[in-house]
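A favour, since you know our structure tokens better than I do. It will help me judge whether the discrete encoding reads sensibly. The space below this message is yours for that.
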Amino acid sequence: MYADFPKAPDLPKDKVDAWQAKGIKIIPVAKENNLVLVNAINYPQFNDKDLQDLLAIKENIVQLKLGHTAITDQAFSTIKSMPVISRLHLENTKVSDEGLSQLKGLQKLIYLNLVGTKVTAKGLSNLKDIPNLKNVYIYQTGSQDSTALKALHGKVRIDTGNYRLPFIATDTVRF
């Protein structure tokens, strides 16, 4: 999956150790390339300042999991500086329409999770300029039905969630 990504620089061990001590996981994703997944799930107080600190490894981050953290729209000015990011998880954060326009320069972004955010159809219209974007998750946002979704349709798979599974007689519990 990361064969076409440029070779990333070495990771600063002291910084990685400090982030790991806070609960921010730095996980290698590609053998013989210093690309990483950064996961802040165990550090819910992770904020915009913490994200700025990650610019020290901006050329290494291909996946960024910031769901359920304290980041805001200010985070987008930092995220747009991460040139190889391909997967971005922002679910259940305070991000809104304001920052989405800053993502258009992310050439490798293919996945964006906005579940449980304040993003609306207006904000989603900014996503049409992201060339390789394939999947956007928008369950529990203000963007369920709109012309913005229609504009993205065909280019991007929009997942609105809220699935209803049929009851099967062999099920033992009915929900």
Remarks:
- The chain has six helices and seven strands.
- The radius of gyration is 17 Å.
- The mean pLDDT is 88.
